[in-house]
Design a protein that fits this description.
The complex is a heterotrimer.
Chain A lengths: L25 E10 L8 E9 L3 E5 L6 H9 L6 E6 L2 E2 L10 E4 L11 H11 L4 H14 L15 H13 L5 E5 L7 H18 L2 E6 L2 H7 L2 E6 L2 E6 L1 H6 L4 H6 L4 E7 L4 E4 L2 E4 L9 E6 L5 E4 L11 E12 L3 E8 L2 E8 L12 E6 L4 E5 L5
Parallel strand pairs in A: 3-8, 3-9, 6-7, 7-8
Antiparallel strand pairs in A: 1-2, 1-4, 4-5, 9-10, 11-12, 11-14, 12-13, 14-20, 15-19, 16-17, 16-19, 17-18
Helix pairs in contact in A: 2-3, 2-4, 3-4, 4-5
Chain B lengths: L4 H29 L16 H8 L1 H34 L5 H9 L6 H13 L7 H25 L5 H7 L4 H12 L1 H17 L2 H6 L7 H11 L4 H23 L2 H8 L1
Helix pairs in contact in B: 1-12, 2-12, 3-6, 3-9, 3-11, 6-9, 7-8, 9-12, 9-13
Chain C lengths: L2 H4 L9 H29 L2 E3 L5 E5 L2 H8 L1 H34 L2 H12 L6 H12 L4 H8 L11 H25 L3 H9 L4 H30 L2 H7 L6 H11 L3 H29 L1
Antiparallel strand pairs in C: 1-2
Helix pairs in contact in C: 2-13, 4-8, 4-10, 6-11, 8-10, 8-11, 9-10, 10-13, 12-13
The chains are: A alpha+beta, B mainly alpha, C mainly alpha.
Pfam families (chain B): BPD_transp_1 (PF00528)
Keywords (chain B): Cell inner membrane, Cell membrane, Membrane, Transmembrane, Transmembrane helix, Transport
Organism (chain B): Teichococcus aerophilus
Chain lengths: 383, 267, 289
């Protein structure tokens, strides 16, 4: 029974922590997975990762990065060119989709238009030759889980997008699959419904303790609900980490840019740890040979902005630079400032309630940020 | 009144006249079929259902009509049975030469039927296929298969995305996917392809003209010979019946799938 | 696991044998009644014909030589092309206003009128041709109307006039369909835009509507021309045997004279005309783009 499988109570597990090692065993393993079409460069290559039982992994990346192909390889809809897929230690690489026992939620839901909601959900049970009475009971329970019992006799086209989405989820879960695969399940919903649905998906996934892979191009979505995130680019896995780690310590400039807004500064490392950017000398974490060309990255909301009229803010090892406000954009819950800092233009984001005052175009200001918030990458590694 | 109205009215009259021109030959068949005259004349000197009575006694035309219906049904069933697996393969399976095969299979549509009819006649004559049911069915299939294949291929291509994949991941084997998901969703395309195959076969004159024999006559050819040799209103009553039968078939298809969809898929 | 296992292909449940088995029936029909007969037809045009419909052994270009040196066949060829061009032009003239009008209707009426315009296609060519015999015959509808107006009607049936009138009407649905497909791409806001820029209605038509509908127009003309060249039933019945076109001559040679090599060569000639029409269409399409 699906509902009884939960290893921990609903909503208890902290979002950003991977399930504790040792408690949960490895459930899904991808080994050097590769997909090629003809002589084209591989759509996916050298992709290896392990998922623990009950873990929700987000596969994140721009369109065409290979994340959907990866999902389709796991489900068996696309044959792999090389590599292995193991579920609970069993090699399923050669199995056709109908013998893989995976629940898939498709981007456009792929509900059978000629069947009612209940018939859609019952289809997988019917294929498994589950008795009619048991199937009926399980269908109603699955529909109850997504709060759609009352719509059981409707046809899919009579449902709203969010309702169709929930039917697709119920249909994928009712067969108690070993793994749940979600292919951009929220991309066809409007913004408000999207937030609601993603939390619902997360709640159900945690309640059932089911191992799941969630493909998306929306980093906010992935960060919000996933235990870990794998960022893909051009068929390769760039980094796999918890959302927090991904945000704070991105492995590459591409990942840094993809998971949030970034200021880019080009500089050269000096003797003694400083970095020259234009006229200024900044402090950044990390060490390296002097003369090395560097790319510095700072998140806009980690920069503190103060009026130049008041005293220069306490340095205390922070980077403090003078600048001039060039543009102010009000975006509702925040203000975006473009600030000229030497030859560079910095984007600064400040909450509309945090500061005692806002700034106007032409204001002279100080920008201050911590070296810990300054990411350094060797130049030439950016996207 | 503004200056636009006069050209507007003239344009409306023009369009109305052209529509009358387009529909006149079909519509005029109905009044003439009730003519009491022995020959085609307008206006008829009197009205009478005598030509419908005559039609019911015209055993040769009735036999040809029966033959045409049987032929159309056989050809329709065979067209669907042959074109459906072919369409599934040509749309779903990628293999070298797939596009070329599709073009070859639909190429008979491009050939004038007078050329195709002659070509088929020449190979049929030496093999005793002229005037035979087998030869007639084969020749009609040449014409109906391209239509059926195109309509079914379009139907397959416009299936809702990923439903077949979804059925597979839910545990359905390929044949079960086809039976439970693909086939029911293709019902409109199957109806359209079937109706089109029947109409094409039922209406085909030129190819049949080459292949008919004394033992096997079909309605369009018999009507053609009748019109060629006699000019009485009998054909009008036959035509009226044919038009009404066609109309009935079209309404059935329209109810099931929508005519524009069916015809558009075939174009 | 071994390297061989890593590259093992997934079990393919739609193998090559299945593929062949499912394509075999359509392939068989295609080869038996299309490819083989057409190739046979082309080859037959290089054989000689003997008395009583016999075909002589050995390849010869005699059929082609006599065909291409006989002014009778040149007249048929040029006459067919000329008549078909005239029919195409008349069909376009009659179809364009109707198609433009239909394309301007609201969605519901447009669909209905489209069905009305293409409905004649569902009626057998024999029946529609018979309808024209009712209309054009000496005691028919049109001469009756002309007589009622106190004039002497010209002869309309069993001559070229009848064939041209009948084919124009019979081919109109194809032209209307092609034109409507072309008009489909025409955005009504473009005309409004031109209007706001100061263009008068006729200028809007000449500068915006006509150029944008040209691709559909060309396709319709190609289709109409090709169908006119290959039409047989209508010229045969409305021409009453007095109008000789390529298609009717093929039939007469094949069925009456039993000269199959000549009928085959004439068939190839029809295909050559098709090829030429396609080439002209291709050139004109390039010009339009």
């Amino acid at each position: 029974m699906a509902i009884a499988r939960a290893p921990h109570a609903a909503g208890e597990a902290p979002r950003d922590a991977a399930p504790a090692a040792g408690l949960n065993s490895v459930h899904l393993t991808l080994e050097a997975l590769e997909k090629r079409y003809g002589n084209l460069p591989p759509s996916v290559s050298a992709l290896s990762l392990q998922l623990r039982q009950g873990e929700l992994l987000g596969l994140l990346g721009p369109s065409g990065c290979g994340k959907t192909t990866t999902l389709r390889m796991i489900s068996g809809l696309v044959p792999v060119t090389a590599g292995r897929i193991l579920v609970a230690g069993r090699d399923v690489t050669a199995l056709p989709p109908y013998r893989r026992d995976m629940g898939v939620v498709f981007q456009a839901y792929a509900l059978f238009p000629h069947m009612t909601v209940a018939e859609n959900v019952a289809f997988g049970l019917e294929m498994r030759k589950v008795s009619r009475t048991e199937a009926k009971e399980r269908v109603m329970r699955a529909l109850g889980m997504v709060r759609l019992e009352v719509l059981a006799d409707r046809k899919p086209r009579e449902l709203s997008g969010g309702q169709q989405q929930r039917v697709a989820l119920a249909r994928a879960l009712v067969i108690e699959p070993s793994i749940l695969l979600l292919d951009e399940p929220l991309s066809n919903l409007d913004a408000k419904l999207r937030d609601e649905m993603r939390n619902e998906i997360r709640d159900i996934q945690q309640r059932l303790g089911i191992t799941a892979v969630f493909v998306t191009h929306d980093q906010v979505e992935a960060m919000a609900i996933c235990d870990r995130i794998g960022v893909m680019r051009a068929g390769r896995l760039e980094q796999i980490a918890t959302p927090l780690e991904m945000y704070e310590r991105p492995a590459t400039p591409f990942v840094a840019d993809f998971v949030g807004r970034m200021n880019h500064l080009r500089g050269t490392r000096l003797e003694g740890g400083g970095v020259r950017v234009g006229e200024a000398v900044l402090t950044a974490a990390g060490t390296g040979p002097a003369g090395e060309a560097l790319l510095l990255m700072v998140r806009p909301h980690r920069i503190q902005m103060t009026p130049a009229a008041t005293a220069q803010p306490e340095a205390a090892g922070r980077n403090v630079q003078p600048g001039t406000v060039r543009r102010v954009t009000f975006v509702g819950d925040a203000l975006h400032y473009e600030v000229a800092m030497g030859a560079e233009t910095m984007l600064v984001e400040s909450s509309t309630v945090s500061g005692p005052q806002s700034f106007a175009v032409g204001d002279a200001v100080f920008l201050a940020w911590s070296p810990d918030d300054t990411l350094t990458f060797p130049a030439g590694t950016e996207a | 009144m503004n200056t636009l109205s006069l050209p507007r009215i003239a344009y409306g009259v023009l369009v109305a006249l052209l529509l009358v021109f387009l529909l006149a030959p079909v519509l005029l068949v109905f009044p003439i079929s009730f003519s009491a005259d022995n020959f085609i004349a307008w206006p008829p000197s009197g009205w009478s259902p005598r030509w419908y009575v005559a039609l019911a006694r015209e055993s040769e035309l009735l036999l040809a009509f029966r033959n045409s219906v049987v032929l159309g049904l056989v050809v329709t069933v065979l067209s669907l049975a042959i074109a459906l697996p072919a369409a599934v393969m040509l749309v779903r399976k990628e293999f070298p030469g797939r596009d070329i095969l599709f073009s070859v299979f639909t190429a008979p549509l491009l050939l004038p039927s007078i050329v195709l009819g002659l070509a088929i006649l020449i190979v049929f004559v030496g093999r005793g296929l002229v005037g035979s049911w087998f030869g007639m069915v084969l020749a009609h299939l040449t014409l109906t298969l391209p239509y059926a294949l195109r309509v079914l291929a379009t139907g397959l291509k416009t299936l809702p995305p990923a439903v077949e994949d979804a059925a597979g991941t839910l545990g359905a084997r390929p044949f079960t996917v086809f039976r439970r998901v693909t086939l029911p969703l293709m019902a409109p395309a199957l109806i359209a392809a079937g109706a089109l195959s029947f109409l094409v076969s039922f209406d085909e004159v030129v190819i049949s003209l080459f292949i008919v024999g004394p033992q096997l006559k079909v309605l369009p050819v018999s009507l053609y010979h009748y019109v060629e040799s006699r000019t009485d209103p009998l054909v009008a009553s036959a035509s009226a019946v044919l038009i009404l039968v066609t109309l009935l078939l079209v309404i059935v298809v329209e109810r099931a799938v929508g005519l524009r969809k069916a015809v558009g898929g075939g174009g | 696991m071994s390297a061989a296992l890593l590259t093992r292909p997934r079990a393919d449940w739609r193998g090559g044998t299945v593929l062949m088995a499912l394509l075999a029936p359509i392939l068989l029909v295609n080869v038996l009644t299309f490819l083989a007969p057409v190739i046979n037809l082309a080859m037959l045009s290089f054989r000689g014909s003997g008395p009583g419909g016999s075909i002589q052994e050995g390849l010869t270009t005699a059929t082609w030589t006599s065909l291409l040196t006989d002014s009778f066949y040149w007249e048929i060829l040029l006459g067919t092309v000329w008549t078909s061009l005239l029919i195409t032009f008349l069909t376009l003239l009659c179809s364009y206003p109707v198609a433009l009008w239909v394309s301007r209707l609201g969605a519901r009426w447009r669909n209905l009128m489209m069905v009305v315009c293409i409905s004649p296609l569902l009626v057998s060519a024999v029946v529609r041709t018979y309808g024209w015999m009712i209309l054009l015959g000496d005691q028919g509808f049109v001469p009756g109307v002309i007589r009622a107006m106190g004039m002497t009607p010209p002869r309309l049936l069993f001559n070229e006039t009848g064939v041209i009138i009948g084919l124009t009407e019979i081919l109109m649905p194809y032209m209307i369909l092609s034109l409507l497909a072309g008009f489909g791409k025409l955005d009504r806001t473009l005309e409004d835009a031109a209007g706001t820029l100061g263009a008068r209605p006729f200028t809007v038509f000449r500068r915006i509507v006509l150029p944008l509908s040209l691709p559909g127009l060309l396709l319709g003309c190609l289709l109409t021309f090709v169908l006119a060249v290959s039409s047989f039933i209508t010229p045969k019945l409305l021409g009453g045997g007095r109008v000789v076109l390529l298609a009717t001559e093929i039939y007469d040679q094949a069925i009456v004279t039993l000269n199959w090599p000549l009928a085959s060569a004439l068939s190839i000639l029809v295909l050559v005309v098709f090829g030429a029409a396609l080439a002209v269409y291709g050139q004109l399409s390039k010009l339009v783009d």
